[in-house]
UniProtKB/TrEMBL annotation:
Residues 611-763 form the Helicase C-terminal domain. GO terms for cellular component: nucleus. One of its GO terms (molecular function) is ATP binding. Residues 190-413 form the Helicase ATP-binding domain. This is Helicase ATP-binding domain-containing protein. Pfam families: Helicase_C (PF00271), SNF2-rel_dom (PF00176). SUPFAM superfamilies: P-loop containing nucleoside triphosphate hydrolases (SSF52540). One of its GO terms (biological process) is DNA repair. CDD domains: DEXDc_SHPRH-like, SF2_C_SNF. Keywords: ATP-binding, Hydrolase, Nucleotide-binding. The lineage of its organism: Eukaryota, Metazoa, Ecdysozoa, Nematoda, Chromadorea. It comes from Parastrongyloides trichosuri (Possum-specific nematode worm).
């Protein structure tokens, strides 16, 4: 810095020593990133950053610098674009792999490595960190530089976070918090003190993320001063037909959006853990409630619960009305004459949630919005609230695109925009991967079941061990030949399709993840390949599951025992079925009898027999068992077998109403005289379900997404489990299922690298190259 710049900085520093209002706090020196001389008689306006923090910052800081200008008596000074070099005290940093000079505010750093208990009221009320995040949002730096600037800014402030601090037990909490939950609350308080006022709670399943969120809201309840200056912030919806808008009404409530199946569980957790008078809660679900809550009914609350279905439904209304507004100018006079008749209906259908600016938004099981272009993802991003939290044990399941969708909801600028996110997650740049890992470190907290509590030197979750085993199953003779006929028949068609599409679109999935245009024909062909693959995976479980899409006449060589040594494109017609098995004519002689057996529901396939053998062992021990499949057809086959044998069982799937599922889960967990066998849909098990009443689980078919499987396994291996648990996965030898294991390993590595901040290169999801591996083409 030359002499001229140094003198300018001194004048600038002297003119911007702003004292806080008289609340008994120490004076704080603030540095505003402006290389201009400021008149001494200036007045200062609060920034939007401070306006929208709610509570702490709005109450404790009455003065600050506007994000767009500094207002004086006679002039407005435009804020120039600032690089990190112009924001405070000189400081050497090497976080992003290159030596650069950055500037930051001076402050003391804690060097203690001990576990520190702090008074949470004092900690919450502390002065928020000085944060130049507005520069990040308004920066016109190139994509790459802007991203590095943003991450370095977050890192510098995150370094003020002491991970060894834990909060005291709250007097209104009836349940003693575990060590990881105390760490979570401290992290969440810290994150809400500086932009982006958001983060990801990613504890492993079974470690009480629900209680962490509830306790955090309780801790923050006393700081309920929440003032928002709606500086141009508006939500459309009041009367879009005439172009009117309204500003959302501020509420101190936290809006918690959950899957419908766990709505009751969240309510029960509040009642169980929070003392009387602790938190005021209501459920907003207009479709299933007699009382319709209006905006004013949801303001003076601590928590408003709603479901993803409600959020999506209300967003559809907004889209519908805004679309109508856009078309209004092109309507003819006859249509416009009838518009007034629609106004009353529109007002009745107004989105209540869109009319509220919540203090905080929480998305439980946030992977529900992992595809950012879906209506649900857009609906969640459209909700109003500056403080945002994503709760999930599996933030990355398939591709890095899953993480982008979360950042978009959290509004982590500039990575809530696809070009900026792609810049640090594509390619093999070590610098970019290091930057991404630092971003994760700043916004995500995760604990696993083997975490040691330093106070007790014990694991935080002290439950009996879990055993996971893969059982490899050999096909029966005719099953093997039928499967091979199907596989090789498909293989040739898949090979032609893959070669064609790679030539036209490159790798399908890589282009899709980057948000690039895909020829419609490419999407159709990829969908067809996935359908082929699904049929083969179903055939590994039981031939009956593909009976309606198989041409049995063309499986005749398999029945006759002919070996398959080459492609045979006439072996199977999966997408254009001919005769179904039950319509097969008697004259189909030698073929009919044998195939009719293995394709019938009553037949026990090799995999069915392997599962039943393990179930028998578990029942002999007096334990409860859960048989899991992603296909209800497979569960129906098991149900038929148990009914024929007179064995009691219950089924838990998405086909049943939620109250029925809740009742069956209650029986599983708490009724020792209930059935010992439960048939569970894989996808129904993946969302917030506690199944600790069972300690044996049998996964009959592999799923592409290993995170979904792990979620399912953790339903029996979590807090409250008192027995040793056993999990078995069944895999057919020399089949496509073995290749699915390879795909799972790739996805598991990606998820591990992201969560452990060890990402060295991005791994694309399932694409044409994976198809080539599956089919050896």
């Amino acid at each position: 810095m030359n002499d001229s710049e140094s003198n300018k900085r001194k004048r600038f520093d002297a003119s911007l020593k702003i004292e806080q209002d008289s609340v008994g706090k120490e004076n704080v020196t603030k540095y505003v990133p402006l290389d201009v001389s400021i008149p001494s008689n200036m007045s200062v306006k609060r920034s939007r950053t401070e306006q929208f923090t709610g509570g702490v910052l709005a109450r404790k800081q009455s003065t600050s610098v506007s994000e767009n200008y500094i207002k004086t008596e006679n002039m407005e000074v435009e804020r120039p674009l600032q690089h990190p070099e112009h924001s405070g005290v000189k400081h050497e940093r090497t976080i992003l792999g290159d030596d650069k000079e950055y500037y930051e505010s001076e402050g003391e750093e804690s060097s203690s490595s001990e576990i520190i208990n702090v008074d949470v009221d004092e900690f919450i009320e502390g002065s928020p960190f000085e944060f130049d995040y507005d520069n990040v949002r308004k920066s016109t730096l190139p994509v790459g530089e802007r991203g590095f600037f943003a991450i370095d800014t977050m890192v510098r402030h995150f370094e003020q976070f002491d991970p060894d601090v834990i909060v005291d037990q709250h007097s209104k909490l009836k349940t003693k918090l575990m060590y990881n939950q105390m760490k979570n609350i401290h992290f969440m308080i810290h994150r809400e003190k500086s932009e982006p006022f958001s983060g990801i709670l990613a504890d492993e399943m079974g470690l009480g993320k629900t209680l962490s969120v509830i306790a955090f809201i309780l801790y923050q309840r006393q700081n309920d001063s929440f003032r928002v200056d709606y500086d141009g912030f508006m939500v459309k919806g009041a009367d879009p037909l005439i172009g009117e808008f309204y500003e959302p009404v501020e509420s101190r409530a936290t809006l918690i959006v959950v899957p419908a199946i766990v709505l009751k569980q969240w309510q029960d957790e509040v009642k169980k853990h929070v003392g009387r008078g602790g938190l005021k809660c209501k459920v907003y679900d207009p479709k299933n409630q007699k009382k319709i809550y209006e905006v004013e009914d949801l303001l003076d609350l601590d928590i408003v619960f709603t479901t993803y279905d409600v959020v999506k439904a209300e967003y559809r209304k907004i889209v519908k009305y805004e679309t109508l507004l856009k078309k209004r100018h092109s309507m003819d006079e006859e249509i416009l004459a009838h518009i007034d008749e629609l106004k009353d209906e529109i007002k009745r259908n107004e989105s209540t949630l869109a009319g509220i600016y919540f203090r905080r938004l929480v998305l439980d099981e946030v992977h529900a919005i992992k595809r950012p272009n879906t209506i649900l993802a857009k609906a969640c991003c459209h909700l109003n609230g500056i403080k945002r939290w994503a709760v999930t044990g599996t933030p990355v399941q398939n591709t890095m695109g899953d993480f982008y969708s979360i950042l978009k909801f959290l509004k982590v600028a500039p990575f809530d925009l696809r070009p900026h996110f792609n810049d640090i997650t594509t390619g093999r740049s070590e610098k970019k991967m290091k930057a991404f890992n630092e971003l994760v470190r700043c916004i995500l907290i995760r604990s696993e079941k083997d975490l040691i509590d330093p106070r007790t030197k014990q694991r935080i979750l002290d439950i009996p061990k879990r055993n996971i085993e893969d059982i490899h199953v050999r096909f029966g003779g005719l099953e093997r030949r039928c499967y091979e006929r199907m596989f090789y028949g498909m293989r040739k068609n898949v090979g032609v399709t893959v070669a064609d599409m790679i030539e036209r679109n490159g790798d399908y999935n890589a282009a899709r993840v980057r948000g690039e245009h895909i020829e419609e024909d490419g999407a159709i062909k990829m969908s067809l390949i996935l359908s082929f693959t699904t049929r083969l995976r179903q055939a590994c479980c039981h031939m009956n599951m593909v009976s309606r899409v198989v041409d049995f006449d063309r499986l005749k060589p398999a029945e006759q025992g002919q070996e398959v040594t080459e492609y045979n494109e006439k072996a199977i017609h999966l997408m254009g079925s001919t005769q179904a098995l039950e319509e097969e004519k008697d004259e189909n002689a030698s073929l009919g009898t044998t195939l009719k057996v293995i394709f019938s529901k009553e037949y026990q396939s090799a995999k069915i027999r392997a599962v039943l053998e393990k179930v028998k062992i578990a029942l002999e021990r007096g334990d409860k068992c859960i048989i899991v499949s992603q296909w209800t057809m497979m569960l129906d086959i098991f149900a038929g077998i148990f009914e024929k044998q007179g064995v009691r069982y219950e089924m838990i799937t998405g086909r049943d109403p939620i109250p029925v599922r809740d009742e069956r889960i209650e029986t599983l967990n708490n009724d020792p005289n209930g059935p010992k066998i439960y048939l569970l849909s894989l996808l129904a098990s993946g969302i917030g379900v506690n199944l600790t009443g069972a300690n044996h689980m049998f996964l009959t078919d592999l799923f592409w997404n290993p995170a979904v499987e792990k979620q399912c396994f953790d339903r029996i291996y979590r807090f409250g489990q008192t027995k040793e648990t056993f999990v078995y996965r069944f895999v057919c030898n020399s089949s496509l299922e073995e290749k699915v294991l390879d795909v799972q390993k790739k996805k598991e590595k990606l998820a591990f690298d992201v969560l452990c901040r060890k990402l060295k290169k991005n791994i694309e999801g399932y694409g044409f190259q994976d198809v080539r591996t599956l089919y050896n083409v």
